[in-house]
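Reagents: none. Just compute today. Uridine nucleosidase.
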Amino acid sequence: MGKKVNIFIDCCTGINESFIIPTLISLAINYDHINIIGISISYGEGWADLNLHTLQQILSLLQVNSQIDIYKGVDHSLTAEENFPNRPHNLLKPNYPNITGDILKNKFEQFNNEKNIFISLTNLTCISTLIMQCPDLRLYIDKFICSAGAFDDDFNKEINIFMDPHAANHIFQDPIIKNKVIMFPYGVTSKFSMKARKFDKLKCNIPQYFSKTGEQKHGLLPTAGETTDNAIMHGLPALICILEYTDKNSSSYEWGYKEHKLLFNTEGQNRGKANILKVVENTKSTPQLLGIDQKGSVVVYDMNYDDAWNTFCHYFDEADETYTKLNHSWKTDNIKLLSVLILFLSLFLSFIYRVY
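Predicted 3D structure written out:
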């Protein structure tokens, strides 16, 4: 196996996260070289307080509620006065502590000789806020992976920059963190759409999707809710990026990337659109995207989509096996405990009967 990685995830617990996070948690359970040191829930397309039950359900299913630290992230953009349409007000706050720059810095500092990764599956407000709170945090982050950005006419479909381009500008222009950014833009992540065809392929690629009795096998799929059709697995490239780095036997996913100097529009109809100030072409292929020595923000333009999807199917199946094993173990342990209690109660009642 490759170098150990310690991962902190900021997300908004939408359908995308309900597939990616349990897969990452399963990897952390099954492989010692992957360590999830915390998850924060921030605002996004799926608001934290309304979708928090999704994350709670995932953690409960995998029985890691008490093993992974959960935090409240951020609940608004850097310019808090901005109002977005169709967003609820007076949300109930989740009963978790706030993540701060000092907390995360102290966590990463414990693993200073290992690879520390910050993954953002939502807007960039949280990482921007944490770095402003604790500038030294930048020194302990080896790579910052984000599912964000767009570089074509469909840039307004990409919500993670649109929601807070001020935060994006902070991260992509910071003299330290900008050289650690790996961006998977909308043009790449949107290729992993969970349409009916893809969903059928997911089922086909996972062995024994249905048990011999005909009962549906996957207990993790319902965590995504009932609307998996057309959902996009925006976080899948980030997952593949981690897997490729930690598995020495992994083949290259043929990353097509360039190093960029970026500036994002913050006003008007072009809000969130990227202005490319400088591009550095990369002609050499890399076997590990997380292993490159970058001198600017890396933007991935292409990858081996079929291999990535098949790999995801394999590890999602492994996540389901982990869930099934844990769930069976929990039931078995509880049945044993119940049996012992019944036996004890029977003996106790027998003793009382004889005494009286």
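The mean pLDDT is 78.
Action item: order primers for follow-up constructs.
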